[in-house]
Amino acid sequence: MKQLMIGNAAVARGAYEAGVRVTASYPGTPSTEITEVMATYPAEDVYVEWAPNEKVACEVAIGASIGGARAMTCCKHVGLNVMADPIFTASYTGVGGGLVVCVADDPGMHSSQNEQDSRHYAAAAKIPMLEPSDSEECLSYTRFAFTLSEEYDTPVLLRLSTRVSHSQSLVETAEREDIVLKDYVKDPSKYVMMPANAKGRHVVVEKRTDALTAFAEVTELNRVTFNEKTVNGKKIGVITDGVADMYAHEALGDNVSYFKLGMIWPLPVERLKAFAAACDEVYVIEELDPVIENHCRALGIAVHGKECFTMLGEYTPAMIASAVLGEAPAEHAVIDAIPNRPPVMCAGCPHRGTFYVLKKLGLTVSGDIGCYTLGAVAPLASVDTTICMGASVSAALGMAKARGDDFAKKLVSVIGDSTFMHSGVTGLIDIVYNKGVNTVIILDNSITGMTGHQDNPTTGKTIRGEATKQVDLEALCHAVGIDWVKVADPFDVKTFEAVVKEACALDAPAVVIAQRPCALLKTVKYTGHCEISSDCRKCGMCMKLGCPAISKAEDGSIVIDENQCNGCGLCVGVCPFHAIKKIED
Amino acid sequence: MKTTTNIMIVGVGGQGTLLASRILGNVLVHEGHDVKVSEVHGMSQRGGSVVTYVKYGEKVYSPIIGEGEADIILAFEQLEAYRALPYLKRGGTIITATQCIDPMPVITGAAKYPDGLCDKIAAEANLISCDALALAKEAGTGKAANVVLIGILAKRTEIPYETWVEILKTTVPAKFLDVNLRAFEMGYNV
Predict the structure, then answer these.
(1) Do B108 and A170 touch (CB under 8 A)?
(2) For burial by CB atoms within 10 Å, which of A142, A177, A196, A411 has the most?
(3) Which domains does chain B have, with CATH numbers?
(4) Which among B12, B68, B88 has the least Cβ separation from residue A329?
(5) Could you read off the pLDDT of A45-70 as tens digits, one per residue?
């Protein structure tokens, strides 16, 4: 029976059915659920792990492949940057067992810091890339990717986008294939990539690309559907990929002919020329960059592309109907300007205490990637920079070196426990090694929060929930050469403030570990709720916390919404008039 | 081509819109429709506006719903109901909970929560408003407000009552089933 499945779950199912034995990933929206779903399959069938970062994850998968197993690694678009180094060389070594690298782009930046188009990586690394358009294709393409990988001795990239990853559609599942573990064969000319060997492998890569281009001319992944209808007397053809294919079908129906590209590198040549020759006008409909469009233009095929469609954000069927058919968008109501509703730190979020103190101290804050990026928005508004995973630490060293130690003493880095494991610790080593005096605050909330609660090397649990050795953050910081490390509770606002001040004043690097678990963890049990007493002088101090449960009524009095408050009690300590009381239910 | 029925579920992150869309999706699959359900995970869930698109029919291509294309909007919060109004098809229906949750710009005093939202919606749409939170509390827990709203929606579809109940039994965790069945019943009778 067919069942509803998000694209990510279908990718996991496809890999499982293809007999994948090893999956290693680092979480990242919109890719996270692939690996989470993989961990629901039996441990005797597939080893699954959260790695400290994408580079490590990718290398684990490469090693598993060399070891003869079908292996997969999954990441978000920016995670592919982190694993770019191993990928470019894995293209040269080729594979043992099939190797699939799944990357999920985020057009529209629902949960990302940039809008990069990962399709460019396929051509750059000379690795074939498949792109499904819905969950059914997520499953079948993933299964096929492993076969393709082994047949052409290459890693295969599988590209998703937010709408494909997170949309549910109907999927038919099948049994897992019985794929035997291949023998491990020592082959230095293939797997030791030093110049003499790599020169030989580069020849192999170029030949492989020719073979894959020939495959692109015949594969059913690339699908042509001709329709006889005309638009204003012209036969229109559209070339599409990914979810844009679905948008095009909804918008254009059988008014046009379609060339749906399921393999987006290498792209076919003769089939595209033939398709264009059979149409009077051709549109390329692809989100983000003009990857297919540029290929067509290089072949001398006249196409409409980014002059009709934007390079920004997600597409819609209405946008396509307007550009191709000149159709007006559906009539609809127009509304008055209303307040927007940006995401906020949850009630009880431990980061709230941290940013309240940093704002109060007026420090420059070098930020990072996680829920705590929300420390940049009002009213806490204390984060100055957010670039990429780990940059809070290293970029702060750069700022300090540019502006001197006095500046460094009014500057802190904030980085989550998982992000610190990912790529913060290398920056910290740089601070020690190069005599920085920076203060780094590790926001240890005992979980990888933003992506929806994944375990990491500091939590003491594996992806399957088994107990494991826990990285000791204090000992790690000491070991790399930080002499001054203190643990403080960000909800004990006064002490926390004193600790941060002390750290910043030092003529040496310092680490503050702000320790309090995420309020959404099942192990965290706040009880009761907070209430405003008649002692309230409406000073608004508690409003500076930006807690979603606290608001100001029209008469200026402060109100705590009992439904939203989880009784964390942070506001109790912040009120200068002791007018907030914790009430137990 | 545009022969799908389009339902949008809107609310505030944490209100339980995901469970509502799961129930609806499962009911539609059970009825033999082609179905697509699309939502966005990640940062927007942290107390921000959340939107789920549910589309069904003989064949569904696009997983998203554009402006002027939704047949029904199921809203968990008034401001979000109004925000979604441009997505409603002319003559479409909005079912909304009367609950109001202040967004951060209102909490910080940078903006005011608008008045008279239900009147503004009623001027443009068939409006069914209901204090779903109160009904859910009456059923046993405020957390079942989402299922009250599903009950209201259920009554306005061609899908039999029994199907909804059957799917509730397989979708909702067993220990919360009774309270959710009561909440569904209350919504169904609104």
Answers:
(1) no
(2) A142
(3) 4-188 (3.40.920.10)
(4) B68
(5) 999 999 999 999 999 999 999 999 99
